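Table 4 source record.
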Amino acid sequence: MRHIPPPSPSVVVGIDGSRSAITAALWAVDEAVERDIPLRLVYALEPDGASESDPHDTARRLACADITIREAIVAVESTEAPVKIEVEILRGRPEQVLLEASSSAAMICVGALGLHHTPGTGVGSTAATLAAVAHCPVAIIRGYRQSSANPGWIIADVDESPSSSYVLERAADEARLRAAPLRMLPTTTHGTALNYLARHAESIQLVVVGRRRSPGLADVVGPLGLSSLHDTDCSVLICGPRAAL
């Protein structure tokens, strides 16, 4: 039996035609450059019973996917960063495609609000699914800040769980990468993180949390978190179990 090696590590970005996805791709560039691995732009071509029987519709959808990917490539190349870009157009639902990609990815990056996002429902369904079950860290991106005099804080949301040391480690890595100040936020009671975000979201660029955080990840990525982060550039990085990055 021929052995098929697993895909090489990459920073994977979900592309769906939304402005939010382009922002996620721009944010992810530094992650790929820092690790010296490719930036992989992934477009999920969702199943469509009608198009499966109509080759013209299938061709139209593939052409649309190609145009969407090309727009993302142009945006990434405009940064002039020394990053290798890989592209995949895969059949399947976005959450399924990206979940499978997460098994070999160093990180998955998605926009907070997808192309078909329903207002008032928190982050998009794909982002929420990945936050809960992906096999690698998941970055849910709201904004992209290029280097500036006020880069915004990196917040490490920690509690008494053993995983908090990993959360702090990842937050420190992001602070170094983005030349940003780091602050620890001890989470001791329900609503601690949300109350802090509601008061300071404008000065925060990234919150790093553990997937098993207490009192619950939904506080940050659900509807309550959405209201706290509304109209801000505050993104969230969810860390699963410790893994080689």
